[in-house]
Amino acid sequence: MRLLSLPLLLAMMMALGGCNYKGVPDPQVSSRDAEWMAQIPTAEEDPRFGRYLIDDPTGEAPGTIVVDTKERQLYLVQPNRKAIQYGVAVGDEAYGWTGTSTIARKAEWPDWNPPAEMKARWPHVQYTKGGPSNPLGARALYLYEGNKDTLYRIHGTNEPEKIGFAVSSGCIRMRNIDVIDLYNRVPVNTKVIVR
């Protein structure tokens, strides 16, 4: 009997482990969403960062959003010990943020006005009207601690190839179709935990 090589065995185990994941269908989008998302370059999706219904790894209450910055995953906790998992890009180590907040506001194709600290670091960044060239993408969820804006957001992106990496100035970036799905599922005042 021939023994399998270790790399082949590991690949098979990972493939079988993926059988526990159930894909979540894309949300319906408006004609504007479809038109504007078509103008954003696409990137080959790494299956590790897809949208799946999984067993809840967080232990948090249903309705809570949990961001695991090390794993580059966002989880929306569901009833019955399930969660919807989305791949994300997170803050670069120098700009990462962790903590607990709530969604105080939601916006579709929001305008972007970079904070003063970002303008000081990168003078080329400027106000950008909502649309396909806007770094916030299709939706933004604004994170507050009490009544104070953290200046961090969960938002779409015009750089989908960066999902799975630590590249932002602290915000949580999602593929546009994923942030639309999340936006449709959560209300204002949703609890968000960034670990």
UniProtKB/TrEMBL annotation:
Secretion signal, residue range per the UniProt entry: 1-17
Keywords: Acyltransferase, Cell shape, Cell wall biogenesis/degradation, Glycosyltransferase, Hydrolase, Peptidoglycan synthesis, Signal, Transferase
Active site residues per record: H155 (proton donor/acceptor), C171 (nucleophile)
EC number, as in UniProt: 2.3.2.-
Membrane-spanning segments: none
Gene3D superfamilies from the UniProt entry: L,D-transpeptidase catalytic domain-like
Matches recorded under PANTHER family: L,D-TRANSPEPTIDASE (PTHR30582), L,D-TRANSPEPTIDASE ERFK_SRFK-RELATED (PTHR30582:SF24)
Protein's recorded name: L,D-transpeptidase
Organism: Microvirga arabica
